[in-house]
């Protein structure tokens, strides 16, 4: 029994450390402050950061203890939309930090149609993920 308690404490502590690192990276990449600036709600930035940290901790607990969350298909659809927005924000922030788009377009001499290319990439990712989930390829 003590071994299980010890392993639970170690697992939970490791999860908290990872969640803190994720939140630190999220804030370090200025994703949360940028969203607050875009929505003109910068006065609530500390609340956004607290909610982000709470979300990562609760997500850690959810995956650790395999809680059942009721809500059905509607909740699943809302979760999918918000997860996609979150992941898209991460991808765009990382791409912006690395200056991927300007360097890529300059190297391949891509002068016109960059917005169309970005929309095509987004649609391709969306269609691919919908096929992935609707075909039941989820582990």
- What is the makeup of the main sheet? none
Total helical elements: 6
β content, as a range? under 5%
> Can you give the helix content as a percent range?
over 70%
Distance between the termini: 31 Å
Arithmetic mean of pLDDT: 79
Name the poorly predicted regions.
none
Short description:
The chain has six helices and no strands. With 139 residues, it is an all-alpha fold. The mean pLDDT is 79.
Features:
139 residues; mainly alpha; 6 helices; 80% helix
Element layout with pairings:
Elements: H1 2-28, H2 31-38, H3 45-65, H4 72-97, H5 100-107, H6 114-134
Helix pairs in contact: 1-3
Task: Report on this structure.
The chain has helices at residues 2-28, 31-38, 45-65, 72-97, 100-107, 114-134. The protein is an all-alpha fold and 139 residues long. Helix 1 (2-28) packs antiparallel against helix 3.
């Amino acid at each position: 029994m003590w071994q299980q308690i010890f392993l639970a404490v170690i697992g939970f502590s490791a999860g908290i450390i990872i969640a803190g690192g994720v939140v630190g990276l999220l804030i370090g990449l200025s994703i949360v402050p940028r969203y607050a600036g875009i929505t003109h709600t910068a006065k609530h930035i500390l609340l956004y950061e607290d909610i982000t940290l709470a979300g990562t901790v609760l997500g850690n607990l959810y995956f650790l203890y395999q809680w059942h969350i009721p809500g059905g298909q509607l909740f699943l659809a809302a979760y999918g939309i918000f997860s996609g927005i979150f992941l898209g924000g991460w991808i765009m922030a990382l791409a912006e930090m690395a200056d991927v788009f300007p360097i890529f377009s300059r190297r391949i001499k891509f002068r016109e149609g960059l917005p169309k290319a970005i929309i095509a990439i987004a649609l391709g990712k969306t269609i691919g993920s919908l096929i992935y989930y609707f075909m039941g390829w989820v582990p």
